[in-house]
Structure formats: structure tokens, C-alpha cells
Amino acid sequence: MSALAAPSVLLIDDHPSVRSGIKKAIEVAGMLCCGEAASRAEALAQIAHKSPDAVVVDLHLPDGSGLDVVQWIRKHSQDMAIIVLTMSDEESHLIAAMRAGASSFVKKTAPINDVVAAIRSSLLQPKNFSAPGIVSALQNIEAASFLTPRELTVLQSLSAPGTNSDLAKSLYISEATFKTHLAAIYRKLQVKNRLGAITKARGLNLL
């Protein structure tokens, strides 16, 4: 994309009404809709042929996951902006999109201006993940990212049966050390007990 050219955006969603709404919004915002796709197969073919500056892709497509599209793009380009759309409230989907290489994650229920803003910011920083309006999920991701390798090991051990003493022995550490790690895990994940930690960890795809 040259400095004067309008950014080109490919829209990938199996609902024509969704594509139409986004197309109108981005064109009003001075961007160009260079194509539309309703499936994973169509999307990959158009991306390879048109090399858009940005893609807006639904997480759920008729012939596969939108994450497959995200991963394929990132294997071939580090500069393309990738905005993932979804109806899902699950934080695990947000985390999966981030790990796949998405630039931004937007709920379909968000105002259309949020989608336009996500495209603009992603064009500027395609590898700087953002999720407008999903603050709590990002806070959880941030908390999980601060877990040390040992804390992560302790966290993963919590799903096994046994007392703290039993789990400590299985990790070859003292019960006091185990409890110290456990306290840090509870603080970072913002939970109060073992069940809360397990539930949060599963939601973050850590278990």
C-alpha cells in the first residue's frame, strides 16, 4: 500500500448482510473493499490473489475455522492486518485468535465504528493485538502471561486429585513452596481458591 492509496480490505463472512454493513462503513471511512468471501476456501484463494492490506474474518466459517485463515496469513505475511469477528463471549476464543496471529478481535455486537477503528489501528500495528471492548479478557490474558514456568506447572497440577502435600510431592517441592506458588497464582488470576484457579485456567486454555 502506497502512502496515498486507500487501504484494501477483504471481507470474510458467510452472512451477506454482515459483509454489506462492514463494506459500507469502510468505504465511508475512505478504505477500499477489494473483495468478499463466504468460506475458508474462497478466503484463501482471494488473499493469495489480491494480497489485501487487511482482512476482516469471521471466527466461524461453513468449511472451517477463521483461525485457519489467520494462521495461513501469518505464515505468508507479518504485515497484513487481521481483524477477527465473532459472536462468542468465550475468552478462550480471544486467546486462540491472539495466538494464531490476529491483530484485533471484535464482537459482532459491537458498533460498526469499532470495526472500522480496529481496522485502522491494525493497519498501523498489525502485530500489536487488541480487543476493543473486551477489557476483562485482556486482563486475564495479561495475568496469565505473568505466571512463571514453575507457577504454570503448579497450576496445571491442580486438576489432579490429592491434597496440596500430595501435589507438592509429585512436583518434588516442599508443601510450603507449593503454597507460596499457589498464593501467587490466586493473586495473578484473581481467584480465591483451587476450584476458581482450575476454572479460570481452563477458560484461558492453560489446562
Automatic annotation (TrEMBL):
Protein name in UniProt: Unannotated protein
- UniProt cross-references to PROSITE patterns, sorted A to Z: HTH_LUXR_2 (PS50043), RESPONSE_REGULATORY (PS50110)
Q: Which GO terms describe its molecular function?
A: DNA binding
| Membrane-spanning residues | none
Q: GO annotations under biological process? A: phosphorelay signal transduction system; regulation of DNA-templated transcription
Keywords, alphabetical? DNA-binding, Phosphoprotein
All copies of domain Response regulatory, residue ranges: 8-123
Q: Which residues form the HTH luxR-type domain?
A: 140-205
